[in-house]
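Repro:
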Amino acid sequence: MATYFTADTHFGDADLVRRRRSAFGSVEDHDEALVARWNARVGADDEVWHLGDFAAEASRTHCAAIFRRLNGVKRLVRGNHDTNRVLDLPWAEPPVDSARISVMDAAGRPQRLFLSHYPHRSWPGFWRETRHLYGHTHACLPDTSRSCDVGVDAQDYRPVDLAEVLARQDAAEQAPEEMAIRGLR
């Protein structure tokens, strides 16, 4: 069982497709491409943390139909577009506003993560090696050595695993401000 992270899928959001994701051509093509990319990575027993904005401007029926097609055990950290049509889906556990979890890395070491839809400049566990994953920004903020956007706009329109997250953060040119002013990375 692997653990994946994603955000800002915005299923059913024709306005977003028109404004920011026009390469998909239509909201139907967008949704189909995101479902295909999700399922190409995620198996039935894998866990996916969706960090908000699962759908926008989509009907309750459309949300449920998309949800059923997506592989994995799905968990939601609520985003600003996640109204009852999303919150009422059969998530593995009730949606939360943020989460603190640990995931084993490739070397078998636990990596502590703070998950939120919104980016934070500092977060719970910041000075205890907790890394921060978020969405909401649609790839508009640069990664730091301890935080990054896992939304589909920043991640080739697919969920990412812990190794990819760690590699992105390790490659980031910036450290979080609180570390940078102390000369830390």
